[in-house]
Amino acid sequence: MEHLTFDYPAQRAVTTRAHVGVVGSGDLEVLLAPADKANALTAHVVVRTSVDGYSHIWKSVLDRFFSRYDGAAQIEINDFGATPGVVALRLAEAVEAAEQGDDA
To answer: What residue spans define the domains of the chain?
Structure first.
């Protein structure tokens, strides 16, 4: 089991929580929450993965995602062997779920 952390600059506050996906074979869950006050302009990502040795792939996928997403959030990813495409899909789903929560 590997534990990775990443930080990205953010431009806007995230105000709602979201939870998408499940931890299971070939899948992952994403938990998105507003950033704490001390990190108001940062997206902080914690990845817990069952697959060791792929931190460079995680960094690449997250770099691409955060080149488009500017929300200040705490994101936890619990992975059980998801492909980079599934990671990108779940991150996009979490953002969409959080943004829909803002509209409710």
So the answer is: 2-103
With residue 5 as reference, give the H or E element that holds it: strand 2-9
Say if residues 82 and 90 touch (Cβ distance below 8 Å).
Answer: yes
Digit-coded pLDDT (tens) for 28-86: 999 999 998 887 899 999 999 999 999 999 999 999 999 999 999 999 999 999 999 99
Q: Quick one: how far is CA 40 from the chain centroid? A: 16
Q: How far apart are CA 92 and CA 17, in angstroms?
A: 14
Is the pTM for the entire model greater than 0.85? yes
CATH topology of domain 2-103: Ribosomal Protein S5; domain 2 (3.30.230)
How far apart CA 86 and CA 82 sit, in angstroms, is 6
